[in-house]
Amino acid sequence: MRIPFRAAAAIVAAGAALLLSACAARLDLPTKDNGLRLRVQSSVIAPGNGGELIAADALAPGDILLTSIATVNSFGIRLGTFSPVSHAVLYLGDGQIAEAVGTGVRARPLAEVVDEEQMVVAFRVPGVDDAGAARMREWAMSQVGTSYNTVGVLLNAPFVLNRRLCELPLLPTAVSHYCMSGMAMVQLGASRDDQFFCSQFVLEAYRQAGLPITNADPRWVSPADLLHMREGDVPSIAATQPLRYVGHLKYNPPPILAADGP
């Protein structure tokens, strides 16, 4: 199949713009039913955009909560990953969660998370049964007190930026994966796998339960990557299956900065 020069030039230009704006994209080649299509990653995540507010009893053990909070650290993570979320939490059931934070892995009530955060949105991995959720809970509780992977977070920040080169829409999926894998091995090789940052901890819990969310190393994955693994989005890191949106437990829209008066 040949793509006309002007169309190819337009796609290359769009790809360059997407790279500069840090949006991953995928180019779907024409099929019998659909023409050439460029899909762009979306960071829209609000109840007003097809979502809904839910109560805690709508959650199931194993659900993944993505959150953001009004702190400098949270804002820095969101700015660095071009995402509205900065933290990932594993719901254990019975109103309890487990998470990796600066002081290490801890378990605490879900109500505390909802009270503290500006936004809490839940996603579900299809096919998690009671036995799988129990294995996740057992492993997560066994890790309470494990140190935070500070080195992993520091290494992940430049990796998030540099890997955008591997996400241009004209790159075949296999080439993109090879590019990202090679970059990760070079840039994240010193990161530890016996300590955890938040999204690494969530992914490792699923891996330990025999239900991996992705074939990628958990040290590669940020909360933003988990967000883009949802149904209908364009993942930066491929998931074994898309995550299903459950709902928002809390949503406070970001403040609107008013312009200065005359």
Automatic annotation (TrEMBL):
Q: Enumerate the UniProt keywords alphabetically.
A: Signal
Q: Does the keyword Transcription apply?
A: no
Q: Does the UniProt entry include the keyword Signal?
A: yes
Q: Kindly indicate where the leader peptide sits in this chain.
A: 1-24
Coiled-coil spans are none
Under InterPro entries, the record lists:
Papain-like_cys_pep_sf (IPR038765)
Highest taxon in the source lineage: Bacteria
> What is the recorded name of this protein?
YaeF family permuted papain-like enzyme
Q: Which source organism does the UniProt entry give?
A: Variovorax gossypii
